[in-house]
Amino acid sequence: AVVLIDVDHFKAINDRHGHQCGDQALIEIARACQGTLRKTDLLARFGGEEFACLMIDANIDLVARCAERMRALVEALPPRTLGNDNQTITISAGVMSRVPAPGDHAADLLRDTDSALYRAKHEGRNRVCRYKSGSGE
Question: Could you tell me if 6 and 29 are in contact, meaning their C-beta atoms sit under 8 angstroms apart?
């Protein structure tokens, strides 16, 4: 299973409060997200303000619940924890779970999860969306 996370409006945090605040926010977001995972799961920074999480042997319901806990914990982080006096942060996430088929590549799994993340952002941010294939989920 894969979770892709993007910090909503992160550029505004850096522009308004400075890069040191942005760095502190990323550290706290990572801590909050890591706290929801099992020992076998892996969370990594995946670009400027994006994170990727790999979960082995996790069905879509488990993955979606985990991502929703991440979202709620990040939303609840107090501004002071994030390095500023008044601005909170939210995240958007795309999730998917499947057994890779013969010929599947990591890029295929990331592309599909990214489409769910894009939908989360398009639908208003601060939400988790599941990947939907042509035949359902």
Answer: no
